[in-house]
Amino acid sequence: MTSWVKRSLKKAPVGGIGVPDWHIGGTDPSAAGAQGSSEAAGAACCAAKATLDGAASAKPATSPAVIIQRRPNMVPPCFLMGSSPHHHNAAGARQVPAVVASTERGSGVALTPTVRGEQMANTAPATIMRGEIAASIEVVQGLIADRARLEAIGVQLAERRPKVIVVAGRGTSDHAAIYGRYLLEHAVGVPVALAAASLVTQYGIETASPESVLIAFSQSGAGPDMIALVESARRRGALTIALTNEAASPLATAADATVYLAAGEERAVAATKTYIAELVCVALIAAAAARALGRDAAWANDLQQLPERMRGALAAADAWIAAARGSSQFAGMLAADRALVVGRGFEFPNALEFALKLRETTGAFGDGYSAADLLHGPIASAGAGVPAILLATDTATMESMEIARQRLAVAGSPTLTLRTSGGASDAASIRLPDGPAGPLSAPATAIAGLALIEAIATGRGRNPDAPAGLTKVTKTL
Amino acid sequence: MTSWVKRSLKKAPVGGIGVPDWHIGGTDPSAAGAQGSSEAAGAACCAAKATLDGAASAKPATSPAVIIQRRPNMVPPCFLMGSSPHHHNAAGARQVPAVVASTERGSGVALTPTVRGEQMANTAPATIMRGEIAASIEVVQGLIADRARLEAIGVQLAERRPKVIVVAGRGTSDHAAIYGRYLLEHAVGVPVALAAASLVTQYGIETASPESVLIAFSQSGAGPDMIALVESARRRGALTIALTNEAASPLATAADATVYLAAGEERAVAATKTYIAELVCVALIAAAAARALGRDAAWANDLQQLPERMRGALAAADAWIAAARGSSQFAGMLAADRALVVGRGFEFPNALEFALKLRETTGAFGDGYSAADLLHGPIASAGAGVPAILLATDTATMESMEIARQRLAVAGSPTLTLRTSGGASDAASIRLPDGPAGPLSAPATAIAGLALIEAIATGRGRNPDAPAGLTKVTKTL
User: Which has the least CB within 10 A, A68, A145, B34, B297?
Assistant: First the structure.
């Protein structure tokens, strides 16, 4: 058990998400820049940026070596053949993952093979995934500038006066669809269902009607199941909308209306900028629909600030990562083969997506739960070797998230909380920039969480651009 | 890599779920009874029973010792203080878990602690969980005998002519609700949505209407979130139905109509008989609603055979477990800290539920996926140390399941398939009794899968009746 875990157990009844009282206990001197929880909340964003620069300049020439024990049944890491994983942060400072290279195999049955950390030469470019995470800020700027075309689709949806909206997606797009499931029910005021695609594709059971709207999410627009759902719904008179990054794709052709993500080509297998683009497109559509129906859309008032908020969130994540590298805390996250991600409400889709990204890029089992569902069984699998990432950006769900955090701490899981209240980042939390709670927190949380997971992947010696057994476009029925 | 895994890789393109070609390679002499894949499909149920009896009588006096490697970060097993886990199968023969007791800790850093298998004295009763799994057959018999009261609620639902049905539950009841999500959409012909409870309880967003029906699932009837959903929906004019095992619970009081599960007191924390009762109650309601609406209910024609089918499924699982104990295959399942469960359509809820039960009772991370969703990312976390349980009982989804099985085999995951076609059980599959494919497969698959998981839990030295950090009734908002 690490000292961090011991402290979590001891402090559990006292420490809260809003007012964290844990501090970095690692050995990296750059960690000092992120210490202290007494800064005023309003200054935290600037503080995080200062930490980022400070961490980069104070970084020692060589990162401390960290020994990660490999489990006997662990899939061998995909070592980066001929390239060295590192990347540039927003300030241009290089960040070198502490743990990467060679494998030593024990010869005895009971010996556990280990991966010993070594600093890699700084010769190769950043990962594609990391570049696309950062690029999502410009993508969102573009969507906001071009919002009229998205709002028109929101108005079209509202004019249909649907009795029910059905959303559908697979993988990452499924999680964006679940964000739509929450936000559209809020905006339009009717139940929203996540499609059970197999009813159509496997059993031939069709339930769409002129009183329903189907929104199908697919980055590629090539998923046969999504196309089948749209064709079924359109044939039965529903309004069908495709959200896709391929404007001329079969899905776009099949649907009545297309929401083009305009995210540019996504080269990494692990979708990041298209995920964030899907979230923001849904928000723009939902806000327009809410206004057309005379329903609450105040949550969308600060949309213009979203790119800046995302920039601050990415900087806060980078600063935390730079400070944490070499610490025992971060080593614990890198060593874990099992992790939990917990959100609630509008942050629940991010919890699912971060968990999926952990699976796709780090080889670890990541599992996303709502703070309520976690307590109905899955909490039994928490423990010292099972770190948990908590997404606590929403005042409405803060109590629920805090109950979950305390239960995780009691179970022994080290927790890392992404939060928008309280003081500066510390060992157990990343302070994201201020901004309105609710639906528009999600894209800012997304960019920070995805950057964190990319750092975990490279820190585990994985190439997140080449996930085991995955291809960019997956076709299922 | 075990020889089983090697064979899986080699045979992947050839072996199918329908016609398995893997055979037990373990050392337990009782395994012989389950070998051979040439039996006619129709005789497989009887063959499984014969195997059960044969396995029990041929069982050696002491089970072979099996060494299970514990991961350094594994939560210490809850050793059964003062009791010895074993249970009686349907034929009354004792089954002794091969792997239970003492822990030896290595002193060096690189040494992995091991749990060495020892036969336990046969002095204590079966686990409560196991008893309640078996008791579910009688519960289902009772529900079928008393079907008129359930069918009346199905007719009431149909008469409402809803535009949308919303189902809600937490934990195990969530998975029964998802079964309802599939089956009610089939039966009633309108979209069915899984409730996002936080919209009501955290954000105060209400969307129920007189054109909607809400069905809330709660074994205890005490969940504050389920009660809040019912109160909100009823206030807004929706028809509200409670499925609960407590007829006088607050949830039952709050709802317009109550579906009483009549499962008797459930003492184990891990819900099993109430889960199966929920599935069967939903099936009875859905069938009645379908008939009232003039829709297809042929799938419910063979309902009377369900208890016998469940009995056969439990016997098949017991026979497989008895044959597999002491084999390297079963040892691999016991050793795994991460497992996948894959289903599709009407078996998808079982995949989610088996995964939850793995978490609750074995300490392993179990994750349930649809065969399609698995390929959209999570397949990246498959591998040699990650066994997968596949639920392939449905002709409609067989191709989808077979694609998933092949992908898992290529990734190196050992697979165990629960199937209703092909020859007798073998090392890689359990042949469940014949019966109509579709909705009514689920309760039979459920009893077999839950028995398997109980055996994994006791085999890992866990007491499934006392899951870490869980209580019988969990209250969340």
Answer: A145
